[in-house]
Specification:
It is a single chain. Helix 3 crosses helix 5 (about 90-100) and helix 4 packs across helix 5. About 10% of the residues are buried. The protein is built from 7 helices and 2 strands; from the N terminus they run αααααββαα. The longest helix has 29 residues, at about 25-55. Strand 1 (about 105-110) and strand 2 (about 115-120) form a beta hairpin. The chain has a single domain (about 25-170), classed as Orthogonal Bundle (Arc Repressor Mutant, subunit A). It is mainly alpha-helical. A two-stranded antiparallel ribbon has the order 1-2. The chain has helices at about 10-20, 25-55, 60-70, 75-85, 90-100, 120-145, 150-175, and strands at about 105-110, 115-120.
Length: about 180
């Protein structure tokens, strides 16, 4: 697989200075490097997921929905949409497709008579388990190349990055073209 160069860079401090912020060359360089590494990692994982998950006759987005429902306990459509970072109509189409395939069912919500609860069918649970086992086997092979301490550090660091990104989205940082 071709590797995209990460060392050839425009001057990242120029972007920070242009935004009226004081320049910290080390922070600017680290920011650019992290951005490039994460961007490449996301692309690799998206293609890996697409190539592995399509074998099960569902899309990557449907897999994310299946996984969220396996982790949650009878989610509403709004809760699923929030978990997937999708609007309600897109999440509804994902659920419709999974329901047509027999992986998801809608039942009356136990606490809100106006809402429906989404849950996996036994077939959906089996499919989730098979796909997850497949993906985890790949992750295990990847992680086996690192010492336990490095693996724990990676999980903690990536978890902190995830938490910071979620907090930014919750604070309204996910809006298109929002001013910082």
């Amino acid at each position: 697989m071709p590797r995209i160069a990460t060392s050839k860079a425009r001057d990242p401090s120029a972007a920070a200075a242009g935004a009226g912020k004081p320049s910290d060359p080390l922070l600017d360089g680290d920011t650019l490097e992290l951005h490039r590494v994460l961007s490449e990692l996301k692309r690799v994982y998206q293609f890996r997921d697409r190539d592995r998950i399509c074998c099960y006759d569902i899309s990557v987005t449907q897999w994310f929905g299946l996984d969220a429902l396996a982790r949650g306990d009878r989610l509403t459509l709004n809760e699923l949409a929030a978990a997937l970072y999708l609007d309600k109509s897109t999440a509804s189409r994902v659920v419709d497709a999974l329901e047509r395939k027999g992986y998801v069912r809608r039942t009356p919500h136990p606490e809100d008579g106006r809402a429906l609860a989404l849950g996996l069918t036994p077939t959906g649970k089996r499919l989730h388990r098979r796909i997850e086992e497949d993906l985890l086997a790949q992750e295990r092979r990847l992680l086996s190349e690192f010492d336990h301490e490095v693996r724990r550090s990676m999980v903690q660091l990536i978890g902190r990055l995830r938490d910071a990104a979620v907090a930014r989205l919750a604070a309204g940082g996910g809006r298109c073209c929002s001013a910082e």
